[in-house]
């Protein structure tokens, strides 16, 4: 990257950096900044959770109390099931203050997967319900599984997030203190967050985008409004909240904005000054809808992943050509990108897989499973440097914002959650009464993608759809469950190269479904 | 329209059409847990609620969003048939 392509908003020298000087930066810590707000403006509102507002002083008091009630040594990693409440935010803050690495677990994560993650991360202590931890005398923790590794002493890890991981065990992404401090500093300056700024938090607290919605907001002395998952999908409720809470900033995956656009029906929310679209590619229609609903807002398309956090950004002007994808734009300050081109070389520009290196990134997965494929060392003219392989295919030209053109694998995003179709097929094929599975992702106006699957039963099996769906729910995480599933006893059609022809398989299953459906209805008449 | 269909039948047919295409209606009993079985997820719940609002002309507000109201055909039927203020009287 050359200096002239950097956005003009480099205000913090601290965010332009190299790995070598990561340890001695004079960036105020996230926890330190929140503590400062608690002491300088103790009564300022920090977190809004339903009808309850918690001030900075109250938040810090609950944080300190919660972390003191945690079991184990003070440097043991701890896992928290992050229900979307003030108590959770307080406990995570307590861990940040106490420098205790904390793993944020989705409340929807299946127990078997959770246990596997805890083992991978070497965590003995799990807090199921941070609310109860804030109430002395009631046990809120349970022991994690056996075979845990030792404590995480001596590391810089602060927050541990998980990748979505369609199958098997999700990988744990350790984000270091400095990486997080730099990110909240960048986000706060970029979005002009400050005391009194209200930011709506629609995402689950275990999602990386909460680092901006909640943590950059609190670092800046702002006010984070927590929206629980059942309300976040109600477009009208979200628009009401944006208005009644006077929110200035809102970030979400495109699906959530589409729900708002659908509910708006001509309504506008001019109080919002910053809209951030992230998590998956966004289409032009959604961007146009966002502009209608938020007429005063600057609209940004931000590209990143859990391992690297935000990496590229494009401020949408409204005159993006609609015959090509909505751009992901240019690297953020301090972010370095490479394109792994088809000839096997690495170059700043070209067509190929995107590699990024950000001041905010992790440098491994905890337990190292899968690290070697994701975190790679590339020799450049400036020496060897560590980059993160994104798996996204990019088209990048000098002087033009980059656009994403596909994937190197069969991964798609459903509501911003990564799903690998090959993994979903493997899970289906692991069922004892299944011979083969074909999974197709079709674009969906609301969710980005929608999965459809065809499953071939073993000969003689009486596997039915309700049983199969229950199996899917027990094995596949949210987002990768298949809204459309078909059962067949016929072999799948093949391509000329002998591979399963998935689109034809699905078409045949749908035709068969239409036939039986009509037959079924005729039978009832 | 066939007026002999009960609320439970109507909801079952909708659930199968929308979330379980191809399934035998007999597999979905009044007690089948639609949420924990993965038949209906959070966005599916939203679709179901929108359909209930239109089909039965009921207003569903945020205080009704308790998932327990939508767990199975029995609870959905009870929810739909629950006495509520007529639209416009609020």
UniProtKB/TrEMBL annotation, chain A:
Domain of life per record: Bacteria
Pfam families: AMP-binding, AMP-binding_C
Compositional bias annotation for Basic residues: 516-525
One Gene Ontology term, aspect cellular component: cytoplasm
TM region positions: none
Coiled-coil zones: none
Biased composition (Basic and acidic residues): 499-515
Compositionally biased residues, Low complexity: 152-165
Annotated region (Disordered), positions in chain: 134-165, 493-525
Alphabetized GO MF terms: phosphopantetheine binding
GO biological process: amino acid activation for nonribosomal peptide biosynthetic process; secondary metabolite biosynthetic process
Domain AMP-dependent synthetase/ligase span(s) in chain numbering: 35-366
Domain AMP-binding enzyme C-terminal, residue spans: 424-499
PANTHER family xrefs: FATTY ACID SYNTHASE, NONRIBOSOMAL PEPTIDE SYNTHETASE
Protein name as annotated: AMP-binding protein
Taxonomic path: Bacteria, Bacillati, Actinomycetota, Actinomycetes, Micrococcales
Automatic annotation (TrEMBL), chain B:
Coiled-coil stretches: none
SUPFAM superfamilies: ACP-like
Signal peptide coordinates: none
Carrier domain mapped to chain residues: 6-84
Pfam families cross-referenced by the UniProt entry: PP-binding
InterPro entries found in the cross-reference section: ACP-like_sf (IPR036736), PP-bd_ACP (IPR009081)
Protein name per Swiss-Prot or TrEMBL: Acyl carrier protein
């Amino acid at each position: 990257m050359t200096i002239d392509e950097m956005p003009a908003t480099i205000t913090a020298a601290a965010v332009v950096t190299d790995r070598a000087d990561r340890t001695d930066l004079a960036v105020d810590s996230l926890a330190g900044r929140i503590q400062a707000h608690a002491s300088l403006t103790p009564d300022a509102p920090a977190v809004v959770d339903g009808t309850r507002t918690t001030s900075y002083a109250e938040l810090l008091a609950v944080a300190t109390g919660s972390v003191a009630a945690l079991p184990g040594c003070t440097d043991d990693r701890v896992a928290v099931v992050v229900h979307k409440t003030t108590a959770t935010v307080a406990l995570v803050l307590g861990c940040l203050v106490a420098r205790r690495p904390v793993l944020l677990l989705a409340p929807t994560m299946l127990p078997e997967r959770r246990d596997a993650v805890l083992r991978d991360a070497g965590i003995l202590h799990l807090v199921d319900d941070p609310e109860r931890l804030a109430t002395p005398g009631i046990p809120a923790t349970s022991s994690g599984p056996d075979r845990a590794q030792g404590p995480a002493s001596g590391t810089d890890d602060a927050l541990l997030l998980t990748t979505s991981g369609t199958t098997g065990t999700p990988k744990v992404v350790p984000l270091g203190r400095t990486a997080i401090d730099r990110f909240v500093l960048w986000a706060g300056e970029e979005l002009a967050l400050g005391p009194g700024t209200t930011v709506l938090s629609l995402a689950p607290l275990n999602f990386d985008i909460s680092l901006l919605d909640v943590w950059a907001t609190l670092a800046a002395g702002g006010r984070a409004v927590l929206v629980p998952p059942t309300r976040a999908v109600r477009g009208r409720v979200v628009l009401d909240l944006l208005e009644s809470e006077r929110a200035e900033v809102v970030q979400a995956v495109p699906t959530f904005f589409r729900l708002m656009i659908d509910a708006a029906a001509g309504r506008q929310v001019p109080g919002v000054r910053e809209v951030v679209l992230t998590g998956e590619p966004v289409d032009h229609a959604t961007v146009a809808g966002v502009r209608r609903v938020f007429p005063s807002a600057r609209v940004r398309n931000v590209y990143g992943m859990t391992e690297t956090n935000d990496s590229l950004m494009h401020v949408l002007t409204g005159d993006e050509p609609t015959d090509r994808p909505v751009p992901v734009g240019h690297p953020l300050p301090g972010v370095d990108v490479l394109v792994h081109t088809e000839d096997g070389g690495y170059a700043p520009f070209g067509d190929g897989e995107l590699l990024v290196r950000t001041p905010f990134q992790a440098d491994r997965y905890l337990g190292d499973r899968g690290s070697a494929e994701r975190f790679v060392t590339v020799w450049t003219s400036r020496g060897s440097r560590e980059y993160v392989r994104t798996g996204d295919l990019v088209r990048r030209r000098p002087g033009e914002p980059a656009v994403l053109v596909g994937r190197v694998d069969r991964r798609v995003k459903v509501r911003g959650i990564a799903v690998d179709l090959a993994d979903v097929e493997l899970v289906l094929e692991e069922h004892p009464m299944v011979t083969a599975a074909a999974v197709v992702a079709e674009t969906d106006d609301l969710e980005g993608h929608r999965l459809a699957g065809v499953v071939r039963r073993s000969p003689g099996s009486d596997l039915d759809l309700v049983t199969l769906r229950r199996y899917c729910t027990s094995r596949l995480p949210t987002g990768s469950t298949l809204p459309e599933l078909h059962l067949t006893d016929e072999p799948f059609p093949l391509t000329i190269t002998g591979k399963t022809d998935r689109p034809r398989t699905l078409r045949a299953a749908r035709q068969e479904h239409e036939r039986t459906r009509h037959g079924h209805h005729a039978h009832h008449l | 329209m066939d007026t002999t269909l009960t609320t439970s039948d109507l909801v079952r047919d909708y659930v199968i059409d929308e979330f379980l295409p191809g399934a035998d209606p007999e597999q979905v009993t009044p007690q089948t847990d639609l949420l924990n079985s993965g038949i209906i997820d959070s966005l599916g719940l939203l679709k179901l609620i929108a359909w209930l609002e239109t089909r039965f002309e009921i207003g569903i507000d945020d205080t009704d969003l308790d998932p327990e109201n939508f767990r199975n055909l029995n609870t959905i039927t009870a929810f739909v048939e629950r006495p509520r203020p007529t639209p416009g009287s609020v």
